[in-house]
Amino acid sequence: MAEEIENKVSEDVQEDKPTASDAVETPVKEEAETSTEKKEESVEKADVKEEKTESTEKADTETPDDMEAPVTPVASKRKGRGGRHVPVGIAYIKATFNNTLVSITDTHGGVVSWSSGGKAGFKGSRKSTAFAATLIAQDAARQAVIRGMHEVEVRVQGAGSGRESAVRGLQSSGLNISVIKDVTTIAHNGCRARKRRRV
Question: Which superfamily is assigned to 83-182 in CATH?
């Protein structure tokens, strides 16, 4: 009996002893297993990322019926090329000695259209002429008419040569002028005036 136990133990010990060929095979097998496991993990991670992006895209496009979009005020809306319909507005004419600027807004102050001497194609001293002011006003008015404007209140600022001709340009391009206001700022001895021009 004791001999049988010793034989079994010796057989077990011999089976457990690794041979030289086993020692070479095991690290290679372990490396192969770890590389395949890493590949599988990376593929699973990529699949999870794709699923997340698909779910976020679906969430962005699909909104539930009980959720309402937040209401934004009219003035802060961005005006695209197609723009909304604005029937009545305010035309601001800034006539300086070097240029004339015309911007047409809705009643809340959101700019619908604008134009200036440079935008109309004038350079240098030609930007301050009365003819340039007429073309500038017509360009701005044309854009406003496309967006449905037909009546404006005009506010003129500055003492440039394009004051009256800009108003005529707005009128000639199909806009009805309801009021003309002069909003030129007048200093009541507040700030020190600029030095006089030597002409």
Answer: Ribosomal protein S11/S14 (3.30.420.80)
Report domain extents, the chain: 2-61, 83-182
**pLDDT tens-place string over residues 16-61:** 555 554 544 555 445 555 556 666 666 566 665 566 555 555 555 5
Distance of CA 51 to the CA centre of its chain: 28
DSSP the chain: -HHHHHHHHHHHHHHHS--HHHHHHHHHHHHHHHHHHHHHHHHHHHHHHHHHHHHHHHHHH---TT--PPP--GGGSPP-SS-----EEEEEEEE-SS-EEEEEE-TTS-EEEEEETTTTT--GGGGGSHHHHHHHHHHHHHHHHHTT--EEEEEEES--TTHHHHHHHHHHTTPEEEEEEE-----SS-SPPPPPP--
